[in-house]
Design brief:
Number of domains: 2
Number of helices: 5
């Protein structure tokens, strides 16, 4: 029969090993998640607009539209009907309007400049944005 001191030492060593394995697995998960967010553009930011809450929406122009914006944000900012851009741009993605423009461009292998120009044109020709 093992002594209680030996049992405690084995328990402590096993606990430390399990804790270390957990820490390593957590770190691997964190790095993998970080890479996925970065690859999908979730960590992108617009350096010209650092605090979106303080941004004056009334001063937005079509030239301020960025790939970090969701279609929903664009619709809200330019007071567009919810499905206006979906119909105008023929967007079939089920995540619309809650997908970032940049993600949509990447996932559909679109030319970013052309797509952004089309969005700007759609907003410009909308009857209530004149």
């Amino acid at each position: 029969m093992e002594s209680p001191k030996l049992t405690k030492k084995l328990f402590k060593k096993a606990s430390i090993i399990i804790l270390m394995v957990f820490c390593v697995l957590s770190f691997i998960w964190f790095v993998d998640s970080f890479n996925k967010f970065h690859k999908n553009g979730e960590l992108d930011f617009n350096p010209h607009i650092k605090n979106h809450r303080d941004f004056n929406h009334n001063k937005y122009t079509v030239n301020d539209i960025g790939t970090w914006m969701t279609f929903d944000y664009i619709n809200f900012t330019f007071k567009l009907p919810p499905d206006y851009l979906r119909n105008y741009m023929k967007i079939k993605d089920n995540r619309y309007p809650n997908i970032k423009v940049g993600h949509y461009i990447k996932e559909n292998n679109l030319d970013p400049l052309v797509f952004m120009l089309e969005i700007k044109q759609a907003i410009t020709i909308y009857p209530y944005n004149k």
